Amino acid sequence: MKPVTIYTTRTCPFCIRAKALLDAEKIPYREIGVDGDSNARAELREKSGQRTVPQIWIGDQHVGGCDELFQVANRGQLQALLED
C-alpha cells in the first residue's frame, strides 16, 4: 500500500472530515500539522503550490484537498490509488 500523507491544522473542519474518511476506510496516514510550524507550511507551499489545508498525497501523487479525496472515494478509485 502506498503511504498517505495529509497536511492539516487542528481546527480545520475539512481536515477533520478527510481524516475521518481515511479512518473509516482503515487507511493509515502520516499527518503533518502545520499549526505554528513555519517550516511545515513552507514545505506544504513548495510541494503543492497551495496554502490551504488539508493537502493530501497518496504515494507521490498529490490528490488535493478534502473535496478531491471524497471525489476519488465516491468514484471507487481510492483503493486503486493505494495499490503499489
Describe the model.
This protein is 44% helix and 20% strand. With 84 residues, the protein is α+β, with helices and mostly antiparallel strands. A four-stranded mixed beta sheet has the order 2-1-3-4, sandwiched between helices. α1 (13-24) packs parallel to α3. It is globular, with a radius of gyration of 12 Å. It starts with a strand and ends with a helix. 23% of the residues are buried. Residues 4-63 form the Glutaredoxin domain.
Count all strands and give the number.
4
Instruction: Assign the structural class, choosing from mainly alpha, mainly beta, alpha/beta, alpha+beta, or little secondary structure.
Output: alpha+beta
Radius of gyration: 12 Å
Q: CATH superfamily, please?
A: Glutaredoxin
Report the CATH topology name. Answer: Glutaredoxin
Domains counted in the coordinates: how many? 1
List the secondary-structure elements in sequence, H or E.
Answer: EHEHEEHH
Number of helices: 4
Largest sheet: 4 strands, mixed
CATH class label: Alpha Beta
The geometry reads as globular
Specify the CATH architecture: 3-Layer(aba) Sandwich
Low-pLDDT sequence parts:
none
Roughly how much helix do the residues carry, as a percent range?
A: 40-55%
Question: Distance between termini?
Answer: 6 Å
Beta content = 15-25%
How confident is the prediction overall: mean pLDDT? Answer: 95
Strand order of the largest sheet: 2-1-3-4
GO molecular function: glutathione disulfide oxidoreductase activity
Pfam family, one: Glutaredoxin
Keywords: Cytoplasm, Disulfide bond, Electron transport, Redox-active center, Transport
GO biological process, one term: cell redox homeostasis
